[in-house]
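Hi R.,

Here's the chain you asked about this morning:
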Amino acid sequence: MPAVLIFFLRGNVGTDTYYYLALLDDYMRYGESAARYEPGFEFLGKTLIYLDLSPRIALATIGLITTLLLCKSFAASKRQMLVMTLLVFPLYFFDFTMNGIRYGLSFSLAAISIDKLYLKKYRSATIWAVIAISMQYSAALVILPFIGALVKKRYIFIFISLIILSYLASPALFSLFTDRISGKTDAYSEIFSPSLFSGLAPLLTTLVIYIVFLYFNKGNLSSKLIHVILVLEIFSFIMAKFTYAGLRFQGVFMFCMILYLKHNIDIISIGYIRKLIYILILLSIASLMLFLKNIYVTVDGDMSPYLPYKFFWEEQRPYTL
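And here is the predicted structure, written out as tokens:
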């Protein structure tokens, strides 16, 4: 609850908070905005404003939706709840709810979609996947590795066929999609990774989860998926030496590794689970320390966007931008 209050009661705190408040403020005043985002996120924002929520309350509500979706996804067992507490919370929670609002919402929706894939509820998984991708397109990168591992090849063929048919039926829609992707690619190409060691923390975190799971998963077969996720993380780390996009991809595939652990931690025998949890606790502490360090980092003399923290009623305009 304290963590929820931190993002729910915040003022103009967080890297992208100002831009999202501006978007919602435009919806409230004009019904539309010159700023363009994914269609699902725009629809959600307009819906919240239509419900007569102020821009600030609407933005806080999106963070609350993300929190509830994560809790739903990780509530299947006590072990899964531990994974959320020890890994998702320190690594992603405040970024999901105070900074990367769109990707936080889309990743939490993607987690629900993957839950349905494991249950072989493909129709439901598809619906959740479409909603997730409509919030931010990078959710597709979270879902696709699991589709490749969990879905029968004939269903993948049907899915690809539907995409082709959809393109033939509405080329304009796909043009909009590719234009958005192109815009993101151009933006990332202008932002370079700040140092040679950029991305080392997510790589090491992913590697620790990979090694620890395989070590304690004795006597059980491991899916090829865990190896694929590690390879994608390593490739993204190399990519991060040349472009900021690599760092974003690292965050995607580290989340994939956490989701893989979530869905497989229950097969770890009782004799090993306590040792695994101890290691995850150490990893959690290290992640929290790194997060706190990043909060206090200054860039070009500017303080972190998280500091100084202000409540929304301390702003000149408490409910709007």
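One quick note: The chain has a mean pLDDT of 85.

Cheers,
M.
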